[in-house]
Amino acid sequence: MAELHVLNHPLIHHKLAVLRDKNTGVKEFREVVGEISTLMCYEATRDIPTVDVEVETPVAMARVKTLGDTKVTIVPILRAGLGMVDPMIKLLPSARVGHIGLFRDPDTHEPIKYYCKMPDDISQSRVFIVDPMLATGGSASAAITFIKEYGCKSITLVNIIAAPEGIAVIRRDHPDVNIYAAAVDERLNENAYIVPGLGDAGDRIFGTK
Ligand code: PRP
Ligand code: URA
Questions:
Q1: What is the CATH number of domain 4-206?
Q2: 87 lines ligand 1 (CB under 6 A)
Q3: Domains of the chain, residue spans
Q4: Ligand 2 atom nearest residue 192's Cα
Q5: Cβ of 77 less than 6 Å from ligand 2
Q6: Which of 33, 136, 147, 203 has the smallest CB count inside 10 Å?
Q7: What is the DSSP letter of 204?
Q8: Is the pTM above the cut of 0.90?
Q9: Residue of the nearest CA to atom 6 in ligand 1?
Q10: pLDDT tens for each residue of 3-55
Q11: Cα torsion for 75, 29, 32, 79, to the nearest 10°?
């Protein structure tokens, strides 16, 4: 069964309050999505394998841990996932980035794929799929299915706000994929928006409404 990790931390709570506020403007919204993404990256990468090496400090030799050549790929689900990429690359500067373009059909809420470009060697990579919102779970489940077709074995889903319905779909479709969420909200409304949520993440990040 997929593990669900909900980040319970005062910094996350405070920043989520800013995102949820409908009066938060595009500049601040984008910045705070970035700050939360950095904090989530720190948690979601906790089990990345490390390699022991020796370095010489000014005082003595020290046995230290590094990331070695662990391959990491970050895959944002376009558009809104783009807002989470740069902050994650700051912590993982060697990470590759793959892109999946999906949008929800406004009537059926089913995901429609319009773009995909993955790094060549993604099958050997630890993959972190990032998207601020996990609502029905349709987009994330389709993205995971797609990435598995490249032979990827280690996939983690990172969402800022998740709905119980979306979590259930990922657990049903992809029990091997762990989920990191900054918050789990109450439910979806009749338009498949997360309640209370933060509205349309893509529109708020890119200022399109
Ligand atoms: C939003 C969000 C997720 C998806 C979640 O994207 O960023 O990708 O909806 O909904 P689901 O779990 O029900 O699939 P949207 O389709 O609005 O596209 P956008 O990012 O281009 O605005
Ligand atoms: N997509 C969003 O951006 N927000 C929601 O609440 C649901 C899907």
A1: 3.40.50.2020
A2: no
A3: 4-206
A4: 7
A5: no
A6: 203
A7: H
A8: yes
A9: 103
A10: 999 999 999 999 999 999 999 999 999 999 999 999 999 999 999 999 999 99
A11: 0
